[in-house]
């Protein structure tokens, strides 16, 4: 393609002079536009007003910059564009609101410091930004759509003189499809309106895009589909091969998996044997007797009841009601069937007993009373208030509780029983056992024969019958 | 229509800064005709060889950009540990640079949107370059939070995207997420605004193209613009709407950025003055950058008659005004710290003045509050050399303002046991320098390949101006 500098094109020769890059206008083609050139915006406005008043509808003025007052002269109606912007802005606000509401309140509620999951003040910035974003994009696209742009070719572009429309000249074009268009008469009209120059623009001989260009675009689009399809394929199918990783994140790290070999140790095992004096991760509370008061395998029995240990507590309300005289018989307590341990799972020492007494007085005596008969200060006060919701604690000296397996009592302290809440979170296991030891001592004290008392202490007893 | 080279013109500035009562001074000097405006703007893109200074600047800035690429690659392959960020200063130069660059962008949108709504016709000569600067500044700004998350390849976690396999969603109550929306909207809208404004000028480039390549490229970009009056009607309306949308947007962006700080509890950050103070500072810094860029650019491409001394003087007045507002904000922060009676706040501000970072604080005061005061004198306002030097001081000062806010507050908050002193590493320093390289490279490319001045708009206001001043017989005819 030879390049012809624009300033070499001779203006005013009347031919549709060929710019180096535009196809030549074919005079055999029918006339598409009549084009008139003016030097000042004022002359253009004047001519446009005349043409409009003559009743032409398909005509246009072209200028390097917007001329104010020409809208009125040409009868251009106010554009609908602001409504597009307005609606898009509203849609932006709605989109943001729904987006925040659903992601934060419905799909992934994540409570932070008790703040509301959805509140207008914290959503306002995003709502505002999306309103502006939607409105701005719509304004630009709406302007282009209403103007029927983009346009890759136009008959007027064949005119060499028309190149100055973006520089310093003013043009008036009348479409040949205008109902009032009459070849000679229209040209005469424009000449009479002070045009410096009038020419006709012909319909373009269709100039398709170059073959190579079309092929390249087609191939390019086809190639662009390849990676996308590959990703889509990989994501929707299963494979025995490891996944392709472009970036190695923490998901894939150099580590040994179970049942594999390693050269790091002499025995070649990746899995290491148990080291004495350690507890494997996750096996800290494996000791059923100590942590749950159950005989070995007790957890299986719990699992067989299909009710979890904590859910069993609820059933005890019924069991308690059954204990009150006159109440109707209730189903047997499922806890009774569990394999509770009968003996303490840790060494019983005087220190443990001391500790148990201290913990008992701290945690239990407020309700159960120092002697375990259920006359603690809280109980006395509650009965005085007579609110009706208080269930008095049972005495530890009843036949049932004296014979109850120690594991079952441990369960009661840990998870609660009737109105008593579980103390498992507050009292460590060892202390719970210590408390139980003391409770057992209290129980024993009520029914101990005189022969159990050491002879040197008998004198200290005050209420023994002589 | 031969292209005019600047050497053919006398390069002495024509002084249009003199106020004559009852008469508007000229917007562009030298009685520019429409063709003359086109020729002088297109010269920068059409001349076969740009000035030597352009080549030198381009060589330097591309080298710096490559250095930036190396620094970012090193960071991504090694981790954020290559920066100086560490307990207690977890936000350091990355956030300082981010806020700095976002602020730079504001002047562009302010000139193009707010001054447009205020019918300030003098904006037409400088808005294109300022908008371009906005885009490039936002590019630099967006880079910093992106790379500072460390795992840049999962940056898409920040946006609520459709096929969410993790079933987790961004936390819209976090100011940092507001930032994602604010900055990305700002970047998009600025780009649309910039591009839309350029469509008629790209059509000018198309119509003056001398090779098929240029014709096709500019033809594609100008979307078949014919200058139709019906098109201009909608175009002007769209431009007005975009300006009306961009005006609150520009104020909102830095407001949201300031919320990142203000919604926290760090002494020195938890302040209600932050939004207006940040916005004023951003305009101040942005105008500083516009002056820094335009003083050499107008001389290099012979645009003194379009970007006149009066334009520069007006911008210097804005710098003086906003610089003083920023000074007021500094004073008010101190006053509130004292008046509020919060001992932590009081300490934070005493520490700024006299603590280990006092050097940064006083640099900021000298650059931001004291240096623009020379613009009270007209001689300084209209001297390209003085304004250029002051504008560079303003840029330095605004960078230090962000440093003062981010680093000093974090380095000493409530617990003296967790105090620390932050120092940047060489990677920090080279990354900052490299971001200037990226910014300059983009701006130099813009000067060479796109219209630096909004030709169509300048022609429009020149026409209006001549209309209003000279053509009295025309007025009488109406």
Automatic annotation (TrEMBL), chain B:
It is a multi-pass membrane protein. InterPro entries: NrfD-like. The chain crosses the membrane at residues 52-78, 98-118, 130-156, 176-196, 238-257, 277-297, 318-339, 359-378, 385-409, 429-450. Keywords: Cell membrane, Membrane, Transmembrane, Transmembrane helix. One of its GO terms (cellular component) is plasma membrane. It is found in: Cell membrane. Belongs to the NrfD family. This is Putative hydrogenase 2 b cytochrome subunit. It comes from Planctopirus ephydatiae.
């Amino acid at each position: 393609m030879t390049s012809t500098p624009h300033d070499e094109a001779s203006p005013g020769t009347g031919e549709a002079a060929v710019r180096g890059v535009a196809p030549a206008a074919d005079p055999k083609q029918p006339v598409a536009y009549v084009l008139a050139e003016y030097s000042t915006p004022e002359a253009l406005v004047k001519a446009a007003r005349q043409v409009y008043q003559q009743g032409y509808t398909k005509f246009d003025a072209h200028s390097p910059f917007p001329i104010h007052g020409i809208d009125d002269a040409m009868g251009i109606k106010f554009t609908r564009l602001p409504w597009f912007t307005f609606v898009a802005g509203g849609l932006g606000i709605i989109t943001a609101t729904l987006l925040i509401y659903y992601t934060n309140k419905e799909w992934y509620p994540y409570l932070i410091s008790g703040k509301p999951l959805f509140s207008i003040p914290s959503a306002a910035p995003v709502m505002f930004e999306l309103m502006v974003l939607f409105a701005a994009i719509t304004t630009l696209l709406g302007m282009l759509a209403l103007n029927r742009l983009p346009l890759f070719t136009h008959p007027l572009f064949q005119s060499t003189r028309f190149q100055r429309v973006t520089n310093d000249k003013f043009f008036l074009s009348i479409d040949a499809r205008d109902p009032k268009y009459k070849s000679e008469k229209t040209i005469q009209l424009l000449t009479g309106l002070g045009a410096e120059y009038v020419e006709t623009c012909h319909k373009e001989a269709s100039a398709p895009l170059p073959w190579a260009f079309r092929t390249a675009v087609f191939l390019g689009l086809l190639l662009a589909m390849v990676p996308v399809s590959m990703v889509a394929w990989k994501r929707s199918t299963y494979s025995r091969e490891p996944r392709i990783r472009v970036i190695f994140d923490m998901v894939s790290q150099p580590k040994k998996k179970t049942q594999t070999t390693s050269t790091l140790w002499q025995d070649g095992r990746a899995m290491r044997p148990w080291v004495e004096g350690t507890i494997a991760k996750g096996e800290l509370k494996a000791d059923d007797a100590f942590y749950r008061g159950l005989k070995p395998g007790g957890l299986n029995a719990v699992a067989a009841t299909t009710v979890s240990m904590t859910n069993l507590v609820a059933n005890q309300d019924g069991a308690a009601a059954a204990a009150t005289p006159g109440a109707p018989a209730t189903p047997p307590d499922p806890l009774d069937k569990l394999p509770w341990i009968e003996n303490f799972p840790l060494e019983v020492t005087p220190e443990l007993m001391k500790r148990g007494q201290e913990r008992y007085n701290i945690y239990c005596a407020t309700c159960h009373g120092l002697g375990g008969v259920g006359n603690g200060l809280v109980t006395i006060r509650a009965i005085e208030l007579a609110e009706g919701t208080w269930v008095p604690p049972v005495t530890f000296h009843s036949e049932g509780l004296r014979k109850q397996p120690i594991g079952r009592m441990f369960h009661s302290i840990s998870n609660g029983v009737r109105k008593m809440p579980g103390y498992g979170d507050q009292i460590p296991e060892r202390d719970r056992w210590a408390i139980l030891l003391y409770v057992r001592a209290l129980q024993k004290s009520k029914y101990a024969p005189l022969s159990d008392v050491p002879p040197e202490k008998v004198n200290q007893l005050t209420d023994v019958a002589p | 229509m031969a292209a005019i080279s600047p050497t053919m013109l006398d390069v002495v500035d024509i002084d249009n800064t003199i106020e004559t009562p009852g008469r508007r001074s000229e917007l562009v000097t030298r009685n520019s005709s429409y063709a003359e405006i086109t020729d002088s703007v297109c010269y920068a893109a059409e001349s076969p060889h740009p000035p030597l200074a352009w080549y030198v600047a381009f060589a330097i800035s591309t080298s710096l950009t490559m250095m930036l690429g190396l620094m970012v690659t090193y960071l991504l392959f090694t981790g954020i540990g290559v920066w100086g960020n560490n307990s207690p200063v977890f936000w350091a130069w990355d956030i300082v640079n981010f806020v700095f660059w976002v602020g730079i962008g504001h002047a562009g949108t302010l000139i193009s949107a707010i001054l447009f709504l205020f019918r300030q016709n003098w904006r037409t000569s400088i808005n294109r370059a300022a908008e371009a600067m906005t885009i490039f500044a936002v590019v630099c700004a967006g880079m910093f939070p992106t790379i500072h998350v460390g795992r840049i390849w999962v940056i898409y976690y920040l946006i609520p995207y459709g096929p969410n396999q993790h079933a987790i969603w961004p936390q819209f109550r976090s100011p940092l997420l507001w930032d994602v929306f604010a900055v990305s909207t700002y970047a998009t809208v600025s780009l649309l605004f910039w591009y839309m404004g350029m469509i008629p000028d790209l059509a000018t480039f198309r119509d003056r193209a001398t090779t098929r390549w240029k014709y096709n490229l500019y033809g594609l970009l100008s979307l078949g613009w014919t200058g139709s009056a019906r098109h201009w009607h909608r175009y002007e309306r769209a431009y007005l709407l975009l300006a009306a949308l961009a005006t609150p947007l520009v104020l909102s962006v830095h407001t949201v950025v300031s919320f990142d700080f203000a919604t926290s509890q760090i002494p020195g950050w938890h302040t209600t003055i932050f939004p207006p103070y940040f916005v004023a500072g951003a305009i101040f810094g942005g105008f500083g950058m516009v002056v820094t860029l335009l003083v050499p650019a107008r001389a290099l491409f012979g645009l003194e008659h379009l970007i006149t001394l009066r334009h520069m003087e007006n911008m210097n007045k804005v710098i003086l005004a906003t610089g003083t507002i920023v000074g007021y904000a500094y004073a008010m922060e101190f006053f509130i710290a004292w008046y509020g009676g919060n001992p932590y706040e009081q300490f934070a501000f005493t520490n700024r003045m006299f603590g280990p970072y006092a050097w940064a604080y006083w640099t900021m005061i000298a650059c931001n509050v004291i240096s623009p005061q020379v613009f009270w004198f007209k001689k300084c306002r209209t001297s390209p050399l003085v304004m250029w030097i002051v504008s560079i001081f303003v840029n330095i000062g605004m960078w230090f303002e962000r440093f003062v806010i981010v680093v000093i507050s974090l380095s000493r908050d409530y617990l003296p046991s967790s105090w620390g002193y932050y120092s940047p590493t060489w990677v920090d320093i080279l990354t900052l320098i490299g971001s200037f390289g990226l910014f300059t490279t983009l701006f130099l490319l813009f000067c060479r390949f796109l219209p630096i001045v909004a030709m169509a708009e300048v022609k429009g206001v020149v026409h209006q101006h001549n209309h209003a001043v000279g053509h009295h017989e025309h007025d009488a005819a109406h």
